[in-house]
Specification:
By secondary structure, this protein is of the alpha+beta class. The protein is built from 4 helices and 6 strands; from the N terminus they run ααββββαβαβ. It comes from Sinomonas cyclohexanicum.
Length: 211
């Protein structure tokens, strides 16, 4: 018994399979050239999102720029520091200071930041700013007996009066300072007496007081 064909119902039974559809030739209407559309899709458009690299590449470039920023800043700071150091070195080149032992002081020497009680001083050119100048020196004979402190103080003070010096009109900021050996120093061979002119205003002298 045969089953009537119902429109829309699935067919059942031993029906022969439908014949295969004929393959379209490459030149037939509606045929697609193999690979052409694929190549088009793989080729990035000139204004498309592929311009400038992928988003990951752009992020990496931004990170590299951020890393370079601090390096440039450090290099600039170092360069400025070197320039400032060079300027300071040049400015100080004309003002040399030499630490000299007090026993090596010579008449006419000028000193910056002078301390009469120190065993050494910063010797500078008298044309540079200074606070003291050694204007008188006397050496007692090696065979002279120790005369006492008062006698040495008077002899040292007399050196300033006998020295050929030129003082400014205003001498209110100038003081006389004397240096002479103690009894122990005298016994040790120190026979030197000195007289200094010292300013109380700091390093304000800029010329020698001696002729």
């Amino acid at each position: 018994m045969s089953t009537p064909n119902v429109p829309g119902a699935p067919r059942r039974g031993n029906f022969p399979p439908p014949p295969p559809k004929p393959a379209r030739s490459p030149g037939a209407p509606g045929a697609r050239t193999p690979g052409l559309l694929d190549r088009f899709r793989r080729s990035p458009s000139r204004g498309g999102p592929s311009r400038g690299g992928t988003p990951g590449t752009r992020r990496e470039e931004r990170r590299r720029r951020r890393r370079r920023g601090p390096l440039f800043l450090i290099a600039a700071v170092v360069a400025v520091g070197l320039i400032i150091w060079g300027i300071a070195a040049l400015a100080g080149a004309g003002k040399p200071k030499a630490a000299v032992e007090s026993t090596a002081y010579a008449k006419g020497d000028c000193f910056a930041d002078f301390d009469a009680a120190a065993t050494s001083g910063n010797k500078v050119d008298c044309a540079e700013a200074h606070s003291a100048q050694l204007v008188g020196v006397e050496n007692a004979p090696a065979d002279e007996a120790y005369p006492g402190r008062d006698a040495l103080e008077q002899r040292a003070s007399q050196l300033c009066k006998t020295s050929d010096i030129t003082l400014p009109d205003d001498t209110s900021h100038l003081k006389q300072r004397s240096a002479y050996p103690s009894q122990d120093g005298w016994q040790g061979g120190d026979r030197r007496m000195d007289c200094y002119v010292v300013t109380t205003d700091g390093n304000t002298l800029t010329a020698s007081l001696l002729h």
